[in-house]
Write a structure and sequence with these properties.
Layout lengths: L1 H16 L21 E2 L11 E9 L2 E9 L3 E3 L20 E6 L2 E2 L6 E7 L2 H14 L9 E12 L13 E10 L3 E7 L9 E2 L11 E2 L1 E5 L2 E4 L3 E4 L2 E3 L4 H5 L12 E8 L7 E2 L43 H7 L71 H6 L22 E2 L5 E3 L22 H4 L7 E5 L4 E5 L3 E3 L4 E3 L4 E13 L2 E15 L4 E6 L4 H6 L5 H9 L2 E2 L7 H4 L2 E11 L4 E11 L5 E11 L7 E4 L2 E8 L2 E14 L3 E15 L13 E14 L4 E12 L9 H4 L8 E5 L5 E5 L3 E3 L4 E3 L14 E6 L2 E6 L3 E3 L6 E3 L12 E6 L2 E6 L3 E3 L4 E3 L10 H10 L22 E3 L6 E3 L33 H10 L25 E3 L6 E3 L33 H10 L25 E3 L6 E3 L33 H10 L25 E3 L6 E3 L33 H10 L25 E3 L6 E3 L33 H10 L25 E3 L6 E3 L36 H12 L22 E3 L6 E3 ...
Parallel strand pairs: 25-31, 28-37
Antiparallel strand pairs: 1-7, 2-3, 3-4, 4-5, 5-13, 6-8, 7-8, 8-9, 9-10, 10-17, 11-12, 13-16, 14-15, 17-18, 19-20, 21-22, 23-24, 25-26, 26-27, 27-37, 29-30, 29-35, 30-31, 32-34, 33-34, 33-36, 34-35, 36-37, 38-39, 40-41, 42-43, 44-45, 46-47, 48-49, 50-51, 52-53, 54-55, 56-57, 58-59, 60-61, ...
C-alpha cells in the first residue's frame, strides 16, 4: 500500500512536471591536475598537505581562517590535523574545523590514486562557482574572489596487509570547491557518475570483525572556547546518515543537478549553521539497465524545491519550445504554476526572470569545459567557446556596467553551459561575464581596432600585407598569407629557419620589499635560435635591488620563447598567429607574500632590419631576494588556449632560491596572461588551434651584479596538448646539426634534411646570406633602392617617392597636397618633385609671391584659392571636395560634398564646426544660427586634466599633485598636495607664492588676503628659490646649500652651509671672498669690514685657490697639496705638504729644486742659499725623481719604492724599501744582485764585498723575481705577494703577505699547507713541525686548486682571453664560466662539466644556474682515474674537460658501457695518445698549455710532463717502440719531441709551418706524418722521427686536413678533411690515392682499426664510424653531454 501511495505521488509529480537531468560526468568537474597549477599530496595512508596559505581570509561558520590543509582521508581542515586514529573512525562532529566531502580511511600508497589541491583566482573557475551559488541561492549577492579546489582522483580504501591478496580494485573520484569573498563562503561537493564505488571503510582495529563504517559527508566547526577556559563542541552539519545515503550522493543533489551539492558555509557577521541550497524537482538518473527512474533517487529533505530560471542562458526570453529542439536533455512541465518565483512573486526579482513566463531549464553543469585532468580515457566533446568583451554590450543594467570595469584588459572565460545558438550577450548577477556573442562586439586588443563595417579588399589595402606575403580576397574582406619560405600572420613575415633578434625598452616602477625602484627606459635585447627553440633575453642597466628580485620573473623572456618556439607536428609558434603587433598583459602573484607584478609587453612591429620591437612595462611589487642569491627553475609545461584575437594561459610555477643567509628556500608564483592580437576572420578555412602546449625544457636565470644585466635563457617546444612522442625526429628534439640559419626538414623516421633559410644559401649545415641586391634578386621597382638585410632585403624609396600598395614599388609623393607654395601661387606636382608658380599678377619664386605694380584686382580670398587649387588639377581627384565660396570670396556657412552627400557648417576659416555634419537625406543644420560659444579650457583645467589623464584608465597617478580649479576654471587661491599634505598659496598663474607653504597639521595661510605688490626677484632670491624648487613638492633637497638673502633680496654678507657648518663672506654677486672661509666652531670673519681693493692674483695664489675651490662647497679636498704664498703672492721658497710632512725648495715658478726634498723630522734645507750650478742628472737620480714626480702635487706615491743615490748620483750599493723593510744589493745599473735580499730585521748583506759567481736561480727565487720585475721600475706591485726564500734559495717554511699580514706554512714547492693560515695578530703556527689539518678544515676544492695552478702557470697575470676557472666563495665552480674577459662563455654543473648547448659567442651570455644544491662535502682535491670496464679494445676520446672511454665489441660501438675516465676541470683536452706498454694515456691541454699523462689504474692522478713554452698544443703522438712523444704547437708553428717523461725536449721543425694540426707516428717504420692547416697552401708532410728526410706527401685537392691516421693493413696514410668533407688515403710515396667517403660532416680527429675509421665529428658532437670496405657510415655515438669532441685514440689491453 505504501509503495502504491509513493507511486501515485510520483505519477502526480510527473504529470505536473518532472525535470529529468543526467548526473554530472567527470568532465564536468572543475579543471584539476598539474596543468591547472595544482599541488599534489604525497602518497600514503595518513598524509596531510603542507599549509595552503590563503591570499585573503576565509570565513568558515563565523570564524576567520587564513590557511587550510588537505588530507588523504577526504577532508579539508582549517588547522593541522591530528593522527587519523583520533578522527577517521568517528562520526561528526570533530574536534577541529572540517569540510568533509568523503571522510573515510583512504589510502593512496603504491600509486593508488592522486589528490590535487590549489587556491585559484582563475576567472573561469570563479564564474562557475558564482553561477552555481546564484542558482542555489538566488538572493545571494556573492562575487567570489578566490576558490579552493581539492580533487580526490581514483583513490582507494585502506586495506589491511593481511587482506592484500584480496584487495579491492574499487576507487572513488570526487571534488570539493570552496568559493569565498570578503564576507561569505560556499562549498560545492561534486560526485561524478561512476565516481563512487566504495561507500565506507573498515576500522583498522576491527579485530577480524567484518564491519564497515560508512563515509561521513558534512561540516564541523570543531571545538569552540566557552567561558574563556572551557572548550565545548561546536556546531556541525551532516549530509549523509548511512551507507544508502552515501550511495545516493551522485544520484541526487540539492542544486538541480544529480551529483552536485551546494552549501552556504560561513559569514563574517553572523552564522549559526550550514545552509543547504534549495533548487530542484524530481531528480532521476538513468538506470544502469535503461532510461528508467529510481524511486530512491530523492530524499525527503530535497523532495520539494523551487526551480529558478537562469538569466545568463536566455536573457531575452527566447521561445522555450524552440530551445527544446536543440536541447540534449528531455524537459517537461511548461506550466508556471508549479514553478513560482522565489518569495512568492515575480515582482521581487524582476532581473532574474526572463521575458516569457516559462522558466529556463536546469543547466547541465560544466558542459563544454575543457578536460584538464589526467584521466586518460575521458575526452569530452568540446563545445563552442565564448568570449568576454572588454566592455559590456549595450542594454545591460547600468549597475552591471559600472561593476564590470576592468580587472585585466581582457578576460576570457569558459561558459557553463554554452548557448545553443548565437544570441545577445548578458551579464550574470554581480557582473560575472559569462557570455558574449562574437559578432556583436569589437574586441579591444589595445593594439589595433578592427571592424568589418566596410568591406576591405586587396585592391585598396594590399599595403597592409608584408612584402613577403600574398593578399587574398574573401566574401567579407581580405586576408594576408605569407609566401612559401616565410612564416608569420601575413601582415608580418620572416624567413623560415632564420634566427630572430628582438629589441625594446623596459620601463615602470617595481616595489622590492618596501623600496620603489624606477626603471627608466632601459634596453632589452633577445636572440632566438628558431631552429632549436632557444631564446636568450638580456636586460641591461638594471639597478641592483630589482635585478636580484626580478630573477624569478622569467615570464618576461617567455614571451619570445612562445613566439618562436620549436614546432612539433600539428602546432604553430605564436608569431604565426600574432605577427609583430600584439599586446601581452600578464599578472604574476608570488606566494607566500602575495606580491603582485603586472607585465605589459607591446609588439611594435618589425624595424628596418626585420628585427622585432617589443616594449615592456612593469608595475607592482616583487619579493626581496638577498644579493648574491641564485634562482633555479625546473622545466615546466604551459597550456595556451586560443580564441579569436586572444590567447590565454594560467599556471603555477615553483622556484628555488639559494642564498648564503637562508640556504635553499622554495617559493611559487601564479601567472595569468592574455595575448591579444589582430587576426583575420574572413578566411574561414584557416581556423587556428584551440589548445597548444609549450614545453620549457630548460630555464636559466641570472643577474650579473658587475654588469647590471639581467639574463633569461629558455628552451621551448610547442606541440598539441599531451603529445609526448617516444622517438623524436632530430628536427623536433633540436639535436640536429643544421646551421643556425637553416631549417631542419624532418624525413621518415630519424632522417632529416637541412635546408638553408629563405635568403641564405649553402648545404644546410653551412649557410651564408644571399645579397639579393647585388645579385639582382630584389624585385624593387623604379625609383627604389635595394638595401640588403640578413636573410632578406628592403626597398627604400628615393627622395620624393613613397612605397605603394605592394610594399615594393615606389610611387610619387604628391607634395602639393600639403600646400607648400605661397597663397598666391599654384602647385604643380611632378615625378619625385614639385613646382610652385606665382599666379597671374604676382611675381616671385612660388614660395614667396608679391603683387606686380599696376595690378588693381582684388586678391583671391582663402576660399577662392582653396577652390581654385582643387579645380586647377593640382589636387583634383575623383570625389575630391570642392569648397563653395560666396560673391565676396568667403566660405559659405553650409558646405556640402558633391560625391558623398554629407553637409556641414564651417567657420570663417572654412573649418568644420563640431557636431554639424549631416548624412545624405537628412535635413541640414541651420548654419546661420549663432553657435554656442564653448569656453576654452583654462590653464588650470588643462594642467589638472593633463595629470588626470596620464593613466591609461584616466585617473591620476598615485602621489601625483593634481591642481584644484574653481568653477570658472581659475586656480583656487590655496593648493594642497593630496599625498604629502603640504598646502600653499598660488597666484593667478598657479605659481606658488613665496613663504606660504605649510606642513601637514600647521595652520594654513590666508590666501585671500591681498598680496603685496611683488617686486622682481633678485639674483639671490632666484638662486635660493631654484634650490628650493628642485623637489617636485617644492621644498629643498636635503644637504643642498641654500643661499641666504636679506629682506631686500640681496645676498647677506656672510653665508653659511646648513649641513657642513662652514661660513664665508660673499660680495654683492654672491661670490665667495678669498680667505674668508671658516670651519665649524671657528670665529667668523667680519664680513662687513670694507674689502681692500684687490690686486690681480699671482700664479701662486691662483694655484692655491684652484685647489681650494675644487669642492662644490668651496673648501679644499682633504689630503690635497696646497701651495704656500708670501704676502706679495709669490711662492715661499720652502714648500711643505700638510698631510705627508715632506718639505722642499722651489724656484720662483714653484718648481721643486732637485735634491732639496726632506722627509718628516729631517733637518730642512736652507732654501734661501743660492742655487749651485746643476750637473746633469744621473740614471739613479732620474729614476728617483721619476718616482717622486708621479703625483700631481709633487710628492711620492705612498708605498712606492724610491731608489737611493749617493752624493755623486750613483746607485747606493744597498737599496731598501721604506714600506716593506726589505733590503738588497744592486750593481752600477741599479739591478738587484741575486741572493742579496734580506727581510726586515735580518742582518744586511755586505754589498761592498765582491760578487760571488752566481748559482742558477731556484724555483723560489724565480717566483720571487717574477713578482719583483713586473713593474717597469723594478719594484713589486703594491699589494702583490712576494715569496720569501732562504739563503739557499728554497722557500722559507713560513710565508707572510706584506700587505694583508696573513702568514702560512708551505712545503718545499711553495704550496700552502692546509690549515696553517693565520690572520694578522694571531699566534703563528710552528711551520717546522708537521701540522695536521683540523678535522673540520675542508681541503682545497678542485676549482680552487685548478685556478691556483693556472694562475701560477700564467705568471700571476693571465691575459684577457685566457681561461681561469671562476669559483664560488665555498670553492665550488661558478655556474657560468668564460674565457677571461671575453663573452665566449658556457654553463657548468657542480663538477665543472660543461652543460651541453649553453655555449655563447655573442654579447648575450648564457643564463646559468647550478644544477643541484652545493654538496656538503667538497669534491676530492685532485682528479683521479676511473678505469674503463674490462674490454680488449676501447676508443678514448677527449671532450672539453674530460677524457672518456667507449668500448668496442669487435668493430661495433658499445655505447651502453661508455664512461668518463678522467675529469680535468678547467682544461681543454685536444690531442690524445695511448701508450699500450704502460697502459697510460697522454694528452695536450689547450687551456693550461701543458702536456700530461695518467695511468689507467684506479685512483691514478694526472702527472704534468711539460708546462713551459707551450702556447697552443694540439696534435699528440706516442712512439711506443722508441719511448718518445711528438706534438705540434699551432701558435709558434713548431713540431717538437721529448722522452715520455718530458725530458730530452727538442724542436724538430720551426720553419715552413703555418698551422700544424694533426700528427701521427708509425713506430714500425720510424716515420712521422703531420697536417698543416694552411688555408692558402694546405699540405700533409712526413719525416723520420729524428727530423730527417722531410717531404710533402699531399698538397693537391685538400682544404682543411684535420684528422690523420695510418692504415697498417694497406700501408697508407689516411686523412679526413673538414674543408672538402672527404676521407682519403695515399701511400707514403704519394701514389695510390683513393677516396673512402665523400660526404663527411666536420671531422676533427680519427683513428683506424680493423677496416673501420672512427672519427670525432663537430657537427654531430659524437663519434662516427665509416667502413673502409663499403664506404658507408656504420655506427655513431652521441654522448649525453653535447659539446665538441677533440682527440680520439685506440686503447688496447695489449699492443696491436
Amino acid at each position: 500500500m505504501e509503495r502504491g501511495r509513493l507511486l501515485a505521488v510520483w505519477l502526480l509529480c510527473w504529470s505536473c512536471g518532472v525535470c529529468v537531468v543526467t548526473a554530472i560526468q567527470r568532465a564536468d568537474l572543475l579543471p584539476y591536475g598539474p596543468l591547472s597549477g595544482d599541488f599534489i599530496l604525497a602518497e600514503g595512508d595518513d598524509e596531510t598537505s603542507r599549509v595552503l596559505s590563503l591570499p585573503k581570509p576565509l570565513y568558515f561558520y563565523d570564524s576567520q581562517f587564513t590557511q587550510l590543509y588537505v588530507a588523504t582521508n577526504g577532508i579539508i581542515s582549517a588547522q593541522d590535523l591530528p593522527m587519523e586514529k583520533q578522527y577517521v573512525d568517528d562520526g561528526l562532529p570533530t574536534d577541529f574545523p572540517v569540510v568533509a566531502p568523503f571522510l573515510a580511511d583512504i589510502d593512496t600508497s603504491g600509486g593508488r590514486g592522486q589528490i590535487y589541491y590549489r587556491v585559484t583566482e582563475t576567472p573561469s573557475v570563479l564564474n562557475r562557482v558564482a553561477q552555481e551559488v546564484h542558482r542555489g541561492f538566488p538572493d545571494a549577492r556573492f562575487a567570489p574572489t578566490h576558490a579552493v579546489v581539492a580533487t580526490w582522483e581514483n583513490v582507494a580504501a585502506y586495506e589491511e596487509p593481511a587482506r592484500a591478496a584480496g584487495a579491492s580494485n574499487k576507487v572513488n573520484t570526487f571534488q570539493a570547491v570552496i568559493g569565498y569573498d570578503e564576507t561569505d563562503s560556499y562549498a560545492l561537493f561534486l560526485y561524478p557518475e561512476g565516481g563512487l564505488n566504495f561507500f565506507g571503510t573498515r576500522p583498522k582495529e576491527s579485530y577480524n570483525v567484518e564491519i564497515e563504517l560508512p563515509a561521513r559527508v558534512g561540516f564541523s566547526r570543531g571545538e569552540v572556547t566557552y567561558l574563556i577556559f572551557t572548550r565545548t563542541e561546536g556546531p556541525h552539519y551532516s549530509v549523509t546518515t548511512d551507507e544508502q545515503s552515501v550511495k545516493h550522493l551522485y544520484q541526487v543533489g540539492n542544486t538541480g543537478t544529480p551529483g552536485m551539492w551546494l552549501f552556504h558555509t560561513g559569514n563574517r557577521y553572523s552564522f549559526d549553521n550550514i545552509v543547504p541550497a534549495a533548487v530542484g524537482g524530481l531528480l532521476a538518473t538513468p538506470s544502469p539497465r535503461g532510461r528508467g527512474f529510481s524511486l530512491d533517487a530523492t530524499t525527503p529533505e530535497y523532495a520539494e524545491f523551487e526551480e529558478y530560471p537562469d538569466n545568463t542562458l536566455y536573457p531575452d526570453g527566447q521561445d522555450e519550445e524552440e530551445e527544446e529542439e536543440d536541447d540534449d536533455y528531455p524537459l517537461t512541465s511548461e506550466d508556471p504554476v508549479f514553478q513560482p518565483a522565489p518569495g512568492g512573486g515575480a515582482a521581487e526579482h524582476p532581473d532574474s526572470l526572463p521575458a516569457t513566463p516559462s522558466p529556463a531549464p536546469p543547466a547541465p553543469v560544466g558542459e563544454g569545459l575543457p578536460s584538464m585532468t589526467s584521466e586518460p580515457g575521458l575526452r569530452p566533446q568540446q563545445a563552442e567557446r565564448q568570449y568576454a568583451p572588454a566592455h559590456p554590450p549595450e542594454g545591460g543594467a547600468p549597475e552591471q556596467q559600472q561593476q564590470q570595469q576592468p580587472q585585466l584588459p581582457l578576460e576570457v572565460v569558459d561558459l557553463y553551459p554554452p548557448p545553443r545558438r548565437p544570441g545577445p550577450a548578458a551579464l550574470s548577477p554581480d557582473s560575472h561575464v559569462v557570455a558574449v556573442d562574437e559578432e556583436d562586439v569589437d574586441l579591444d586588443t589595445r593594439v589595433i581596432q578592427y571592424t568589418t563595417e566596410n568591406k576591405e579588399t586587396c585592391a585598396r589595402f594590399q599595403q597592409q600585407c608584408s612584402q613577403n606575403a600574398l593578399c587574398s580576397d574573401y566574401a567579407t574582406g581580405f586576408c594576408c598569407h605569407c609566401q612559401p619560405g616565410f612564416y608569420g600572420n601575413g601582415r608580418h613575415c620572416l624567413p623560415d629557419g632564420a634566427p630572430q633578434r628582438v629589441s625594446g625598452k623596459v620601463s615602470g616602477t617595481v616595489m622590492v620589499g618596501t623600496t620603489p625602484v624606477e626603471l627608466g627606459n632601459i634596453d632589452l635585447h633577445a636572440y632566438i635560435v628558431v631552429g632549436d627553440g632557444r631564446a636568450y633575453t638580456a636586460i641591461s642597466e638594471v639597478p641592483e635591488p630589482v635585478g636580484w628580485a626580478l630573477m624569478p620573473v622569467a615570464p618576461i623572456g617567455e614571451l619570445f620563447g612562445w613566439l618562436f618556439a620549436l614546432e612539433l607536428p600539428n602546432s604553430q609558434a605564436g608569431f604565426k598567429i600574432t605577427g609583430a603587433q600584439f599586446s601581452r598583459h600578464a599578472e604574476v602573484v608570488f606566494y607566500p607574500g602575495n606580491q603582485r607584478l603586472s607585465i605589459v609587453q607591446t609588439g611594435r612591429g618589425l624595424d628596418d632590419h626585420n628585427h622585432l620591437t617589443v616594449d615592456t612595462a612593469l608595475s607592482g611589487s616583487v619579493p626581496f631576494l638577498p644579493p648574491g642569491a641564485e634562482v633555479a627553475m625546473d622545466p615546466f609545461k604551459e597550456t595556451y588556449q586560443y580564441y579569436p584575437s586572444v590567447a590565454t594561459s594560467t599556471s603555477v610555477r615553483e622556484f628555488t632560491v639559494r642564498s648564503a643567509e637562508h640556504g635553499s628556500e622554495s617559493f611559487s608564483f601564479q601567472l595569468k596572461q592574455n595575448i591579444t592580437y589582430r587576426d583575420c576572420r574572413h578566411d574561414s578555412r584557416s581556423a587556428g588551434p584551440e589548445t597548444l602546449q609549450v614545453n620549457v625544457e630548460r630555464a636559466f636565470v641570472m643577474y650579473v651584479k658587475e654588469e647590471r644585466i639581467l639574463r633569461y635563457a629558455i628552451t621551448n617546444k610547442i606541440s598539441p596538448l599531451g603529445v609526448e612522442p617516444q622517438l623524436v625526429n632530430p628536427c623536433y628534439s633540436g639535436s640536429h646539426d643544421c646551421d643556425t640559419t637553416a631549417q631542419c626538414v624532418p624525413l621518415e623516421g630519424q632522417a632529416f634534411r637541412c635546408q638553408c633559410a629563405t635568403g641564405y644559401r649553402g648545404d644546410g649545415r653551412n649557410c651564408y646570406d644571399v645579397d639579393e641586391c647585388a645579385e639582382g634578386l630584389a624585385p624593387c621597382g623604379a625609383h627604389a633602392q635595394c638595401v640588403n638585410l640578413p636573410g632578406s632585403h628592403r626597398c627604400q624609396c628615393q627622395s620624393g617617392y613613397e612605397l605603394g600598395f605592394d610594399g615594393r614599388t615606389c610611387v610619387d609623393v604628391d607634395e602639393c597636397s600639403s600646400s607648400p607654395c605661397h597663397v598666391n601661387a599654384r602647385c604643380l606636382n611632378g615625378l619625385g618633385s614639385f613646382q610652385c608658380q606665382c599666379q597671374y599678377g604676382f611675381a616671385g619664386d612660388g614660395f614667396s609671391c608679391s603683387q606686380q605694380a599696376g595690378q588693381t584686382s582684388r586678391p583671391k580670398s582663402q576660399c577662392e584659392q582653396h577652390r581654385d587649387s582643387v579645380q586647377s588639377g593640382a589636387n583634383q581627384g575623383v570625389g575630391a571636395f570642392v569648397p563653395q565660396c560666396d560673391t565676396d570670396g568667403r566660405y559659405r556657412p553650409l558646405q556640402c560634398h558633391s560625391s558623398t552627400g554629407h553637409c556641414w557648417c564651417v567657420d570663417s576659416r572654412g573649418q568644420e564646426r563640431p557636431g554639424t555634419r549631416a548624412p545624405p537625406g537628412s535635413a541640414p543644420r541651420d548654419c546661420d544660427r549663432p553657435e554656442q560659444p564653448e569656453r576654452p579650457k583654462s590653464q588650470c583645467e588643462q594642467h589638472r586634466d593633463s595629470v588626470q589623464t596620464t593613466s591609461p584608465e584616466g585617473y591620476p597617478i598615485l602621489g601625483a599633485y593634481v591642481p584644484q580649479c574653481d568653477p570658472s576654471g581659475e586656480y583656487t587661491s590655496q593648493q594642497c598636495h593630496g599625498s604629502s599634505g603640504h598646502c600653499w598659496c598660488v597666484d593667478s598663474r598657479g605659481q606658488e607664492r613665496a613663504g606660504t607653504r605649510t606642513a601637514p597639521g600647521a595652520p594654513a595661510v590666508d590666501c585671500d588676503r591681498p598680496e603685496q605688490p611683488e617686486r622682481p626677484q633678485t639674483q639671490c632670491e632666484q638662486h635660493r628659490d631654484s634650490v628650493q624648487t628642485t623637489s617636485p613638492e617644492g621644498y629643498p633637497i636635503l644637504g643642498a646649500y641654500v643661499p641666504q638673502c636679506d629682506p631686500s633680496g640681496e645676498y647677506t654678507s656672510q653665508q653659511c652651509h646648513g649641513s657642513s657648518g662652514h661660513c664665508w663672506c660673499v660680495d654683492s654677486r654672491g661670490q665667495e671672498r678669498a680667505g674668508t672661509r671658516t670651519p665649524p666652531g671657528a670665529p667668523a670673519v667680519d664680513c662687513d669690514r670694507p674689502e681692500q681693493p684687490e690686486r690681480p692674483k699671482t700664479q701662486c695664489e691662483q694655484h692655491r685657490d684652484s685647489v681650494q675651490t675644487t669642492s662644490p662647497e668651496g673648501y679644499p679636498i682633504l689630503g690635497a697639496y696646497v701651495p704656500q704664498c708670501d704676502p706679495s703672492g709669490e711662492y715661499t721658497s720652502q714648500q711643505c705638504h700638510g698631510s705627508s710632512g715632506h718639505c722642499w725648495c722651489v724656484d720662483n715658478r714653484g718648481q721643486m729644486r732637485a735634491g732639496t726634498r726632506t722627509a718628516p723630522g729631517a733637518p730642512a734645507v736652507n732654501c734661501d742659499r743660492p742655487v749651485e750650478p746643476e750637473r746633469p742628472q744621473t740614471q739613479c737620480e732620474q729614476h728617483r725623481d721619476s718616482v717622486q714626480t708621479t703625483s700631481p702635487e709633487g710628492y711620492p706615491i705612498l708605498g712606492a719604492y724610491v731608489p737611493q743615490c749617493d752624493p755623486s748620483g750613483e746607485y747606493s750599493s744597498q737599496q731598501c724599501h721604506s714600506s716593506s723593510g726589505h733590503c738588497w744589493c744592486v750593481d752600477s745599473r741599479g739591478q738587484e744582485r741575486a741572493g742579496t735580499r734580506t727581510p726586515p730585521g735580518a742582518p744586511a748583506v755586505d754589498c761592498d764585498r765582491p760578487v760571488e759567481p752566481e748559482r742558477p736561480q731556484t724555483q723560489c727565487e724565480q717566483h720571487r723575481d717574477s713578482v719583483q720585475t713586473t713593474s717597469p721600475e723594478g719594484y713589486p706591485i703594491l699589494g702583490a705577494y712576494v715569496p720569501q726564500c732562504d739563503p739557499s734559495g728554497e722557500y722559507t717554511s713560513q710565508q707572510c703577505h706584506g700587505s694583508s699580514g696573513h702568514c702560512w706554512c708551505v712545503d718545499s714547492r711553495g704550496q700552502e699547507r692546509a690549515g696553517t693560515r693565520r690572520p694578522p695578530g694571531a699566534p703563528a703556527v710552528d711551520c717546522d713541525r708537521p701540522v695536521p689539518a683540523p678535522p673540520t678544515q675542508q681541503p682545497e676544492s678542485v676549482c680552487e686548486r685548478w685556478r691556483s695552478s693556472l694562475m701560477e702557470h700564467y705568471g700571476g697575470k693571465p691575459e684577457p682571453q685566457q681561461y681561469l676557472p671562476q669559483c664560488e666563495p665555498d670553492g665550488q665552480f661558478s655556474p657560468v664560466q668564460c674565457y677571461g674577459e671575453t663573452t665566449y662563455c658556457w654553463c657548468v654543473d657542480q663538477d665543472g662539466r660543461e652543460v651541453p648547448g649553453t655555449r655563447s659567442h655573442d654579447i648575450v651570455k648564457p643564463a646559468c644556474l647550478p644544477s643541484v644544491a652545493p654538496p656538503t662535502v667538497r669534491p676530492l682535491p685532485r682528479p683521479d682515474v676511473t678505469p674503463p670496464l674490462r674490454s680488449d679494445v676501447s676508443l678514448l676520446y677527449a671532450q672539453g674537460q674530460k677524457i672518456a672511454a667507449l668500448p668496442l665489441n669487435g668493430t661495433k660501438l658499445n655505447t651502453a658501457q661508455a664512461r668518463t675516465l678522467l675529469t680535468l676541470h678547467g682544461s681543454i683536452v685536444v690531442g690524445i695518445a695511448f701508450d699500450c706498454q704502460e697502459n697510460r694515456v697522454y694528452w695536450t691541454d689547450l687551456s693550461a698549455r701543458t702536456i700530461s699523462r695518467a695511468s689507467l689504474a684506479p685512483g691514478a692522478e694526472p702527472e704534468t710532463l711539460i708546462s713551459t713554452n707551450l702556447v697552443s698544443p694540439e696534435g699528440l703522438a706516442v712512439d711506443v717502440k722508441r719511448r718518445l712523444m711528438f706534438w705540434v704547437d699551432s701558435n709558434p708553428d713548431v713540431i717538437e719531441s721529448s722522452n715520455l717523461d718530458g725530458s730530452g725536449r727538442r724542436t724538430l721543425f720551426d720553419t715552413e709551418l703555418v698551422n700544424p694540426r694533426a700528427i701521427i707516428v708509425v713506430s714500425s717504420t720510424g716515420t712521422l706524418y703531420w697536417t698543416d692547416w694552411n688555408r692558402e697552401a694546405p699540405k700533409i708532410e712526413s719525416s723520420t722521427v729524428d727530423g730527417q728526410n722531410r717531404r710533402v706527401i699531399v698538397s693537391d685537392g685538400i682544404g682543411l686536413p684535420n684528422a690523420l691516421t695510418y692504415d697498417h693493413s694497406m700501408g697508407q696514410v689516411c686523412w679526413a678533411d673538414a674543408g672538402t668533407k672527404r676521407l682519403e688515403c695515399v701511400s707514403p710515396d704519394g701514389s695510390g690515392r683513393r677516396l673512402i667517403h665523400a660526404a663527411l660532416n666536420y671531422p676533427f680527429s680519427m683513428v683506424y682499426y680493423r677496416s673501420h675509421f672512427y672519427y670525432s665529428d663537430w657537427r654531430r658532437d659524437g663519434v662516427i664510424v665509416v667502413s673502409k670496405e663499403s664506404s658507408q657510415f656504420t655506427d655513431e655515438y652521441l654522448p649525453e653531454q653535447r659539446s665538441h669532441l677533440y682527440g680520439i685514440a685506440i686503447a688496447a689491453s695489449r699492443c696491436l
